[in-house]
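Hello,

Our lab assistant flagged a job as stuck in the queue for most of the afternoon. It eventually completed. Since we weren't sure the result was trustworthy after the delay, we are filing this so someone can double-check. Below is the sequence as submitted and the structure that was eventually returned. Let us know if re-running is recommended.
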Amino acid sequence: MTGPGFTTCLWFDGRAEEAASYYVSIFPNSKLGRVSRYGEAGPGEPGSVLAVEFELNGQEFVALNGGPEFTFDEAISFQIHCDDQEEVDHYWSVLSEGGEESVCGWLKDKFGLSWQVIPNGLVELISDDDPEKARRATEAMLAMRKLDLAAIERAHADA
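-- returned structure --
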């Protein structure tokens, strides 16, 4: 038996259409969907965008213009698992532009949404069975903003 599908709803203050278009432009296999508009009953301005459906690499989202009552924080983030450093560099550069860099591969984009840009292989390095290797890899990671897998691998291997 299959369960219900899930769609992530992201709350924006008037920038839902802009955000959906922005995210679709960044990720492969992405597309915009239906745009719903407020009617005469409101609560938004009639004809203004209520919600935008969009898909990012197969994952369904809705961007909702809900107003200023709620904002994003780091309690929710999206992880991007990157095949190589080139992908890490690309997503870090694009998503951090106009946003805010944090530590350990975390950033906030220009809409305040948190992302973790993670190179494949990181988890294995920081959770190595050898506690000394894991410690060195973890310490290297903790000192970084954008993750540099080669530097973490060097710290892991450094005996």
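-- support follow-up --
The delay was a queue issue, not a problem with the job. The result is valid. The chain is about 30% helix and 30% strand. The domain at 72-159 is CATH 3.10.180.10 (2,3-Dihydroxybiphenyl 1,2-Dioxygenase; domain 1).
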